[in-house]
Amino acid sequence: MSLIQVNDLVVMFGPVAAVRGVSFHVEEGESYGIVGESGSGKSTVLRAICGLAPTSAGEIRLDGKVLSAPRHPDFYRRVQMVFQDPYASLHPRHTVDRVLSEPLAIHGFKDREARIEQALEDVGLGHGFRFRYPHQLSGGQRQRVAIARALILEPRVLLLDEPTSALDASIQAEVLNLLDRLRGERGLTYILVSHDLAVVAHMCERLMVMQHGQVVEELTRARLQAHDATEPYTRDLLLASEGYRPLTARA
After folding, report:
1. Cα–Cα distance between 245 and 25 in angstroms, integer?
2. Average pLDDT of every residue of the chain
3. Burial class of residue 241 (count of CB atoms within 10 Å of its CB; 0-12, 13-18, 19+)
4. What pLDDT digit, counting tens, does each position of 154-182 carry?
5. CB contact at 8 A, 197 and 35
6. Closest by alpha carbon to 58, among 11, 1, 104, 107?
7. Distance (Å, rounded) from C-alpha 129 to C-alpha 236?
8. What whole-number distance in Å separates Cα of residue 16 and Cα of residue 123?
9. Is residue 249 situated within a structural domain?
10. How far is residue 148's CA from residue 120's CA, in Å, rounded to a whole number?
11. Distance CA 173, CA 22 (A)
């Protein structure tokens, strides 16, 4: 049984169908990619899984159980989301300490001090960052705080919405390598949305291509790297990204 199963998902915003009949599954411990142009519906799929976008039809299952709307609080102990823009996802008047303390308080954790210190260490930020404000951090540091916030409740699944697209190219690989390491250490399951095929090739074993709210096709990493696509739209995406190289961190 798959950890996450999405069956015939439809998301409507008024008369507009942002997602139309999308189905896919993700196994435990897998990193699964969703790619497509802006407006293809890929981020809306993540938001629907997380309960931030309305499900008009279809169903989403976690561990075989259909997710209710609104989501039960326990859902957010198991599934967390990292948003695209670290400049917008952190409250400008909250210190890093408060950003990390709030989810622990909401979910009733008592060992908050130890968890905050460990979370900062896990994402490569030391104690000295704990009482800084977002404006005192670089973009990469802000996204590390956002990742720490997502991980502090020890979820099984991370939903990653373009987690490096707002960052300078020089630090994108560092954040991706951090996410790769954390997945290996914790046995996490990822669903990664990106328009960047180099990012998907670096992070994901399988991927789904979307256009106009629908699934075009699914590929493995090996097929992506071999430019082995069957659908014209996917071949166009591959041609547009020709020349990409696997991402590696700077020395």
Report:
1. 28
2. 92
3. middle
4. 999 999 999 988 888 878 989 999 999 99
5. yes
6. 11
7. 44
8. 39
9. no
10. 6
11. 30
What residue numbers bound the domain in which 147 lies?
4-240
Alpha carbon 222 to its chain centroid, in Å, reads 21
CATH code of the domain covering residue 79 = 3.40.50.300
pLDDT (tens digit per residue) in 91-103: 999 999 999 999 9
> What whole-number distance in Å separates Cα of residue 227 and Cα of residue 230?
10
H or E element at residue 7: strand 4-13
Confidence of residue 1 (pLDDT cuts 50, 70, 90): confident
d(CA 108, CA 21): 38
Question: Does some domain include residue 236?
Answer: yes
In a domain, 196, yes or no: yes
Number of domains in the chain: 1
Among 38, 12, 34, 39, smallest CA distance to 23 is for 34
Among the listed residues 207, 196, 115, the one whose alpha carbon sits nearest the alpha carbon of residue 154: 115
- pLDDT tens, residue by residue, 104-117: 999 999 899 999 99
What does the pLDDT read at residue 10? 98
pTM of the model: 0.92
Structure tokens at 225: 């790297």
Residues 6+ apart with CB under 8 A from 97: 116, 130, 131
Question: Is residue 250 helix, strand or coil?
Answer: coil
Q: Which DSSP helix (H) or strand (E) runs through 177?
A: helix 169-186
Mean pLDDT of 211-228: 94
Q: Does residue 247 sit within a domain?
A: no
To which residue do tokens 């994901």 refer? Answer: 204
Token pair, residue 243, equals: 């020349």
